[in-house]
Amino acid sequence: MGRADHAAVTAVMGTDTQRFPPDHAQVEALIRDLGAIRADMVTAETRLAPTIAAVHRSQQESARNLLHYLALRGHDLRRLQERLAPLGLSSLGRTESHAMATLDAVMQVLQILAGHPVPGPSVSAPPVDFAGGRTLLEHHTQALLGARPHGRGVRIMVTMPGTAATDYPLVRDLLAGGMDVMRINCAHDGPEVWAGMIAHLRAAEREVGRQARVLMDIPGPKLRTGPMAPGPAVLKWRPRRDEFGRVVSPARIWLTPDTAMCPPPAPADACLPVGREWLAQLRQGEEIGLTDTRGARRSLRVVAASGAGWWTECERTAYVAPGIGLHRAHAQRGSAGVPIEETVIGQVSPKAQAILLHKGDTLILTRDLRPGQPTVHDADGRVVSPATIGCTLPEIFADVQPGRRIWLDDGKIGGIIQAVNHDEIRVTITQARPGGERLGADKGINLPDSALTLPALTPQDIASLPFVATHADMVGYSFVRRADDVAALHDQLARTGGQHLGIVLKIETRSAVERLPELLLAAMHGPAAGVMIARGDLAVECGYERLAELQEEILCIAEAAHMPVIWATQVLESLAQVGLPSRAEISDASMGERAECVMLNKGPYIVEAVRVLDDILRRMQDHQSKKSALLRRLHLARNFWPGERKCP
First CA to last CA across the chain, in angstroms? Predict the structure, then answer.
């Protein structure tokens, strides 16, 4: 603090104790306590100097600040905050992006209050100052996520459905609505589909006049349940009714050519493949008759054509299967020639089977991937054989132990491991709904108490990296647990020419949370890096009751590293899926202003979800910036104090 700063402080507080009578003993104690904390911060930087030197040159100041912040937050600051607040000093609550500078500023004011000479500038490299912290965060955010969108500070990321490869208007509307980053999940589809999505994005950029980055998310070693035996190939639809049983809206059935099936352009209650020529002769207003699998007669009303398919409606429940005939009730000769009166329903996907599990049941996870089987009971209700289902990664059998927790299907089913051998893991179900919970194929498995030795990079991931290096701007790294995992990805990117790619660490395991600082420092070896808070798996791994706390800590540590954060999982999910958001979702989306990017998942109403999120983020940026509340003029205060007031 120079002479001018010293003068400014004394001008406000005065040099005599009558104008501002601080408790000198308390001030001296604060100086000692803060000095001890500062010494810890300097020690942390000195001890880990080789770590700082190893990161990318553009990240070194951020690495220093991260170590300063971690040393600071290694102390419980709550009592210290209570002692600083009555003196009108910073409570150290906003130190993330400039930890040492904040501490030094508070200590300098305390030195003046105590009547001590203000120390001169340090001979060591200066810490990141207040403006520098914000500048570094913005610089790193632009390096990873692209330029700041006009009129909005927080970017919007959208996960692409497979149809984005063939539906150009969808991609164009997403970009026009506010999408800043296209996310491609490499767990689905393949290079041909991915290339189609990116080609549509590039074409949309030219049409809309906006740019977007591409993140390709490699799936990692996702633990899932194995297959189930297929059920019957049967479809069911039913209309929606009110409390009196009256039809509110009929079931919507999509008819598509069986030789070149096209997905419905909007949500459908059922999709029926039928003969192409028969379908081409349909006319709006026709009635189609059928007899369903129960022998019940039903009729479909033809309402509208869309491309090669037709929309029909039915006001009664029906069950249909391949081979059931559809009959045109009033087929007439027209320009298409001799009418084709009948067709049959083609192949439909078998109904997914599931295992019903209750609290207290036994479930056996097996090494082999034979179709799973439900619990078998005898005539008296006794268990003959427990339910079984395969595990897609049997390597984990060596890492789990009895007494450890296990969660299935995004935490819907919980259990305790009772026994483990080479071929089986025996689990007792401890959490399920009173009526039981159904467990199907390809459902997630979480083992929060087990130290898994699985490598984060799978052969599938490595095979995808050449495409990612050529077409993407950044790579999402799933199920990362250790710094060695990050180093392995850097090595693979170097082999495939992908050194330029930004890396987004998906924080979705308990191990990743516990090792977050070392993961961030490892990611800083590259020029651009970020963090995604994958709140779904994180809640299952660490407990839903801890999610808010962990989310807060991740935001703080990432800001200390000047590393952009992506707020992910279930943001405006109801809006994207059914077209109507919940009130809680709106509040949750508004909290995304504390991150640098918010991710939306795919859904039938995703374009509307992007537009709503864009509006929410634009409104909230006047009220919130990271942890800081921005004190813009309140609308509600205008009625009480209508005059314009400006701070000097």
Answer: 22
